[in-house]
Amino acid sequence: SMVNANTSLDPNADGGGIQNTDGTLSLTNVTMTDNESGRQGGAISNSSNGQTSIANSNIYSNTAGTFGGAIVNSGQLTIDKTRIANNRAENQGGAMHLTSATGVVTISNSAITGNSAADSGGISHVGGQAEIINTTISQNIARDNGTPTGGIRAWAGALTTTLTNTTIISN
After folding, report:
1. pLDDT (tens digit, 0 to 9) for every residue of the chain, 171 residues total?
2. 148: buried, middle or exposed (CB in 10 Å: 19+, 13-18, 0-12)?
3. Residue 73: beta bridge partners?
């Protein structure tokens, strides 16, 4: 399946490709590319009541006007055997912006590479729980000259970030 070249440029728009507000979304063997959101989640926005699982997929070359070039999440998100690459956010979280104190994210056996944002080129983790297992986070770029982080930035607040057998390199 493919979710390709969808655009929602309203400055309040979330999820250029898919917005999951209250449902259960399962994506397997899906390619999501060239989607654009005016605000958050260039490819996917998963709200606090949303449950999204992504497996064996490719999410690349998506753009968000503020946060989460590929994905913005405040709900339950599971990612397995997925490549998230070359996405761009103007502010934070080139690949992903994890934003809610109640959000729960598990990423396993995946690659997060070549994403960019002004800060947090790979993952911006603002709230909730994130567990990252057997995953490579590499070559993500933070473009700002201040105190940006290329790989993962865990911000102050109610959050837990757990890494197991994960490589963060060349960010």
Report:
1. 878 878 887 888 899 999 999 999 999 999 999 999 999 999 999 999 999 999 999 999 999 999 999 999 999 999 999 999 999 999 999 999 998 888 899 999 999 999 999 999 999 999 889 999 999 999 999 988 666 788 998 886 668 899 999 999 999
2. middle
3. 46, 98
Q: Which residues contact 18 (CB under 8 A, 6 or more apart)?
A: 3, 25, 32, 43, 44, 45
What lies within 8 Å, CB to CB, of 158 at 6+ separation is: 101, 127, 128
- The Cβ of residue 165 has, within 10 Å, a number of other Cβ atoms equal to 10
Give Dmax over CA atoms of the chain in angstroms: 40
CA angle 39, 91, 143 (to 5 degrees): 145
Residue with tokens 């997929």: 57
Cβ atoms 46, 71 nearer than 8 A? yes
Other beta carbons within 10 angstroms of residue 93's beta carbon come to 34
Q: Residue 39: which residues within 8 A CB-CB, separation 6 or more?
A: 10, 11, 12, 13, 14, 64, 65, 66, 67
